[in-house]
Design goal:
InterPro entries: FG-GAP (IPR013517), Int_alpha_beta-p (IPR013519), Integrin_alpha_N (IPR028994). This protein is mainly β. It has two domains: 2-18 and 405-496, Sandwich (Immunoglobulin-like), CATH 2.60.40; 21-402, Integrin alpha, N-terminal (Methylamine Dehydrogenase, Chain H, 7 Propeller). It has two helices and 39 strands.
């Protein structure tokens, strides 16, 4: 077979038609014993071979599914809930997973006030999670939404309560706890520099252990509900306001600050309802720390130009990699976009879509509602997706490689041209494309050796011979995506019809 392939896969280089590869999930996970509107996938977290998925609507009270990766596949390994829980508790609204502890938010519990909210702690003992207490707001208020968002790093836990009344109704507050011995101790309470009506300070929170970022989606400094993000730094004894961030092009109801993440000297802010270039398209703003101040480095947006994409609904930042959820993408099916920083700019390399986005229910699935990244493993929630049970929700697993490969079309007719596109390479750096498998059997043939173009991309157009009809061909790209890192792309499988 090899001489035939080598002789007939004639390659031509062209400019790529699209800026990113489109890839489907490795796995789609459903709630065990799921039911309509369980909201499985409301939040997700992954660390190593353990993942947790929140389903705040399960049985009206909420639950968290524990998953384990065995031989490359994720399988159910347990289910957490609260004994004596009440309808409307929303246990599983948020989840945070560390090496030794799992935090689960339940925004509807009545800890000291009606629907004030709480956070449950589970300590990891071997392969099990053992209940270790319930954390309530130190100053609970009715419908304060303690736990609406939370983030954790090392011994730090940051909890948002955006509907807490602080001077003004719905002004919001954030509570910072630190683990001291076996206990979580309140370290500091944060409020907006100027608490205002319905500013919802604490709608989103993020921390890397040294800084805390707080989103305030109802902040009106730029425009009505344009939003803001406030950065706090640890000075050795307390958290002090370091900077206040606003979108220079913010507009009414942009909700800048609805999604946040921070990693060292970089932070990202989502504004999922931003109206440029189209209504509700959404945007993500990237900031860098320079001389003690945060300055805008980039503004990222969807390239499709459709209304209500909600690009920036969720964000996940890990060094040079940035994942962005767009729950309204593809007519509400949702999608996830991966960018990587090539040393000069953020380049879009992946677009993840569900293989069967509208299967199993009439509601829009909302893929990208939440994101969790660990290494190359990316979990994305779609709390209204269907499956065995209509609209019970799902969690999708993707492979987050930095170098991406795409095929167009997915299935090609023998005798026609197949386009193979690489994305995310380092401009001018060496790269190669290989055939790595045929119909499930290992097979290796280098098809092209060359270099990435100035945009870090290359496109190949082989003519697929009719003699290969009925076979499945696996392709893989390799090359440098930054000066120090040689990487490989996702594997693309194409069926010859």
């Amino acid at each position: 077979m090899k001489p035939l392939l080598a002789a007939t896969l004639a390659l031509t280089l062209v400019a790529p038609a699209f800026p990113q590869a489109t890839v489907n999930e490795l796995q789609k996970l459903f709630p065990p014993g799921g039911a309509f509107l369980d909201s499985f996938g409301r939040d997700v977290a992954v660390l190593g071979d353990t993942a947790v998925v929140g389903a705040h609507g399960d049985d009206g009270k909420g639950s968290v599914a524990v998953l384990k990766r065995v031989a490359g596949s994720w399988t159910p390994a347990g289910k957490l809930s609260v004994a004596g829980g009440n309808p409307g508790d929303s246990f599983g609204w948020r989840v945070e997973l560390l090496e030794d502890v799992l935090y689960v938010a339940a925004t509807g519990t009545d800890g000291g006030a009606t629907n004030s909210g709480s956070v449950y702690r589970f300590d990891r003992v071997g392969d099990s999670f053992v209940p270790a207490g319930q954390l309530q707001s130190p100053d609970p208020g009715d419908f304060g939404a303690f736990g609406f968002d939370m983030d954790a790093a090392a011994d730090l836990l940051v909890v948002g309560a955006p509907d807490q009344a602080e001077v003004q109704v719905l002004a919001g507050a954030v509570y910072v706890f630190r683990k001291v011995g076996a206990s979580l101790v309140l370290e500091q309470k944060l409020t907006a520099p100027v608490p205002s009506l319905a500013s919802e300070f604490g709608f989103a929170v993020a921390t890397d252990g040294q800084r805390i970022v707080v989103g305030s989606v109802g902040e009106d400094a730029v425009a009505n509900d344009a939003g803001a993000a406030f950065v706090y730094a640890w000075n050795g004894s307390s958290w002090q306001l370091e900077d206040s961030l606003f979108a220079a092009d913010g507009g009414d109801s942009d909700y800048f600050g609805a999604a946040l993440d921070i990693d060292g000297d970089q932070l990202v802010v989502g504004a999922y309802n931003h109206d440029l270039p189209t209504v509700g398209a959404g945007a993500v703003y990237v900031y860098g720390l320079q001389g003690g101040q945060w300055s805008a480095d980039a503004k990222l947006g969807t390239l499709t130009g459709f209304n209500n994409e909600a690009f920036g609904w969720s964000v996940e930042l890990d060094g040079p990699r940035l994942m962005i959820g767009a729950t309204g993408h593809f007519s509400g099916a949702g999608g996830v976009f991966q960018y990587h920083h090539d040393g000069n700019q953020w380049v879009q390399v992946h677009r993840w879509l569900a293989a069967d986005p509208f299967a199993g229910g009439g509601l829009k699935p909302g893929l990208g509602f939440c994101l969790a990244l660990d290494g190359e493993t990316l979990f994305a929630g779609a709390p209204f997706a269907g499956g065995a049970v209509s609209n019970s929700g799902a969690a999708f697993v993707f492979e987050a490689t930095d170098l991406a490969l795409d095929a167009l079309p997915d299935d090609v007719v023998g005798g026609q041209v197949l386009e193979l596109r690489t994305h995310g390479g380092l401009a001018g750096a060496p790269m190669g494309l290989a055939l790595t498998g045929v119909s499930g059997l290992p097979f290796f043939d280098v098809l092209y050796l060359g270099s990435f173009d100035p945009a870090g991309q290359v496109s190949f157009l082989p003519v697929v011979p009719p003699a290969l009809v009925g076979l499945e061909l696996d392709f893989l790209a390799g090359g440098f995506w930054n000066p120090a890192e040689l990487g490989f792309s996702n594997t693309v499988t194409v069926t010859v019809l």
